[in-house]
Amino acid sequence: AFARGLASLLQPRRKLRPTRRERKAITTHPDTCNILIQINRGYNVPQRRSRIAFPEKGDDDGDDGVVCSFVSVQAFGVEECTHSAPGAQPTWNEVLTLPVRPPGGEFSPS
Q1: Would you list the DSSP string of the chain?
Q2: Is the N end or the C end of the chain the one with fewer CB atoms within 10 Å?
Q3: What is the dihedral of CA 51, 56, 62, 66, to 10 degrees?
Q4: C-alpha to C-alpha distance for 63 and 108, rounded to whole angstroms
Q5: pLDDT on residue 70
Q6: For the whole prediction, is pTM greater than 0.70?
C-alpha cells in the first residue's frame, strides 16, 4: 500500500489530459418524460405600418402599429403557448413543458 502511494506521487501529472475514472453503470426505468423548451426573446419582428402615418377611412380602433407576438409549440399532440408580448423585440423568458408519450408507453432504447 505504501509503495502504491509512493508510485502514484512520482507519476507525471497530466493537467490537460486527466486520467479517466471508471463509473458504475446506472440503469433507470422512467415512468414519465418531458421536453423542456426555454423561450427567451424574439428579434426583428415585423411591425405594421402606423395608422397615424397612413390613416384609412373609418379606421379609428386606436391601433398604433404595435404587434403583440407569442410562441406556440406543438409536439406529440400537445400544444403549449407563451403569453403575448408587444414590440419588435419581445421578451418572454418562459419554459414550456411538453410531455413525451412513446408508442406503447415503452421508454426502452431498443
Answers
A1: -HHHHHHHHHSPP-SSSPPP----------S-EEEEEEEEE--S---PPPTTTS--TT--S---SPPEE--EEEETTEEEEPPPEESSS-EEEEEEEEEE--GGG-----
A2: C
A3: -30
A4: 53
A5: 93
A6: no
